[in-house]
Design brief:
By secondary structure, the protein is mostly helical. It contains 2 helices and no strands. It is elongated.
Length: about 80
Amino acid sequence: MGRVLRPVVYQTGEQAREADNQLELRLDVQRLYALSTELKDEVDRSNPNAVLSMSVLKRTQDIERLVKQIRERLKQ
């Protein structure tokens, strides 16, 4: 038999905000992992003697932005 899932009932708005924050943090970390994996794959495919493409630069900027967002979420 499967486990019965019950809806989560929070006692306070603070608990609900914390649960939302945790969920958003997990999603951001998953996205960070995906972006960094894509960056690694792109760099691995590139010619070692060539200048890296603009897409690599853009991806690193996206990663930096996401890391900053994660850092700010952790401070809350």
